[in-house]
Amino acid sequence: MDVFFVFKSEIVGLLVSSAAILLSVTACYFLLKPLNRIRDLCDVGYEEQLRLDNYGQTRRQLANEMRRRKKIGEIPPVYPNGWFVLCESDDLKNRQVRSVDALGEHFAVFRSAEGVAYVLDAYCPHLGAHLGVGSRVVGDCVECPFHGWQFRGADGQCTSIPYTSGKIPKSARVKSWPCDEVNGFIFVWYHAEQENPSWKVPRIPEIVTRKWIYGGRSEYKVNAHIQEIPENGSDVAHLDCLHGPSLLYGSDLNAAQGGKSDNGWAPFLQHHWKVKWEANSEEKHVAISSLHHELRLFGRLPFISVDVEAKQMGPGLVCLSFNTSFGRCLLFETVTPIEPMIQRVLHRLYAPVFMVGPIAKFFVWGEAVMFERDVAVWNSKTFTSKPMLVAEDRAINLYRRWFQQFYSENSPRFTFKENVAHPGNINAYWIGKKRHLTLVMYNW
Ligand code: FES
Ligand SMILES: [Fe+2]
Questions:
Q1: Percent of the chain at pLDDT exceeding 90
Q2: What's the pLDDT score for residue 439?
Q3: Atom 3 of ligand 1, residue of closest alpha carbon
Q4: For ligand 1, what atom is nearest to the CA of residue 161?
Q5: How many Å lie between the centroid of ligand 1 and the Cα of residue 175?
Q6: Burial (CB count <10 Å: 0-12, 13-18, 19+), residue 110
């Protein structure tokens, strides 16, 4: 009997300790696993309308309706010139092909057996099959799934037609886009005048040497013109207003409004910001926002302070360097237009190993919550080509003047026209001087 009792308690003890080990391993896993926060076009910023006016609509239906109704304003050209992220390096294995639509173009992005990334025009010149769908990589070429023609990544030249005994025509080639793989991203160079890259995306030594490692990411689709997103860095006055209420109020703007009141515990924790925006005099494609952030208790006592240098490089990339009480880390923000009025925004954090885990998670989460307050505004705002500014808003004007350098004569423009064949249907047109593409605005 005693033996049985001892045996039984040993089993119970074993089960309890195994459960405790399993629980702590799981907790460690979730604590250390980098945050990956993904929000689609309808996920942020429609709370108010859903509460008041949704007539049984789903979030997605409501977001689509608001997209169609929104007055987009007199927007600048929709695809500026510069480097844009097509995908993250992790998303493209050796010998893998991906199809990416962005900037009014269709791309086949692939990685050779040796690990080099290439970007080609997606449509095969033979009979138009999509080189990013169902194709395979052979050496440094991609092979079309339809008839097996192979195209070299470096220059787009056709190198093999498996069934012809004749010579391969020189003109059998697809456009090969300038691309670069830097800091965990695959970039394409887009230029409306087909000019070659005028600057390079800098390699960050701490990332190249793996002193800093990946610490988390967030990903968004935003319903706005691309210029609106980096404009945030020069919009000094919005910081205390939109980003003043504590992170704990989250990204719902109505909830955040509660964080401004003098009642309750709102004044307990508030964010204070100081920012200076200026165009860089040495590299004209660069502008720098220097930002000082303080989290204050009871509106007075600085609790956590962070200095951030946000280096805007061209229209599609910002490198935010954080100097925190825990140490330095770096966050990239990339913006890629996937339609004239839909931007794909990525944030990717790199930090020293000791910060990866809970600290990095907190950073990615905190930045995401604040960013989502901006998204909520962008998703429903119009573009004001002649904004009513006061003296304190002067950096916005400087920013807009600086951003002009990324548009050129043939940068595609976007206007609305009514479809005469189907009155009531609004068609959207991209108009560039050398091309005229039509797109019927569709539900997303
Ligand atoms: S369509 Fe590509 S090989 Fe025929
Ligand atoms: Fe903002």
A1: 63
A2: 42
A3: 147
A4: 3
A5: 15
A6: buried
Sheet holding 317-324, edge to edge: 35-39, 212-222, 342-352, 327-339, 317-324, 301-313, 286-297, 269-279
Residues 3 and 14: their CA atoms lie apart, in Å, by 16
Look at residues 195, 199, 271, 283 and name the one whose alpha carbon lies nearest to residue 238: 271
Predicted pLDDT at 436: 37
- Ligand 1 centroid – CA 188 distance (Å): 24
Site to probe by mutation for ligand 1, drawn from 133, 138, 142, 149 as the one with most ligand atoms within 8 Å of Cβ, is: 149
* Tokens found for residue 170: 């020189």
* Terminal Cα distance for the chain, rounded: 70
The domain segmentation of the chain, as residue ranges, is: 35-74+200-403, 82-190
Place of tokens 């195209």: 151
Order of all β-strands in the sheet with 141-143:
136-138, 141-143, 150-152, 158-160
Separation of alpha carbons 396 and 389, rounded Å = 8
Place of tokens 């989460």: 365
- The residue nearest atom 4 of ligand 1, judged by CA position, is 147
Taking CA atoms only, the protein residue closest to ligand 1 atom 1 is 127
- pLDDT digits over 33-91, tens only? 899 999 998 899 888 888 776 678 888 888 888 887 888 888 899 999 999 999 999 99
Q: Is the pLDDT of residue 337 over 70?
A: yes
For the segment(s) 82-190, the CATH number from 3.40.980.10, 1.20.1250.20, 2.102.10.10, 3.40.50.80 is: 2.102.10.10
Q: What is the CATH number of domain 35-74+200-403?
A: 3.90.380.10
**Ligand 1-lining residues (CB < 6 angstroms):** 124, 126-129, 144, 146-147, 149
Structure tokens at 273: 């910001």
361 closest CA partner among 347, 382, 380 = 347
Secondary structure element (H or E) that encloses residue 30, with its range: helix 2-32
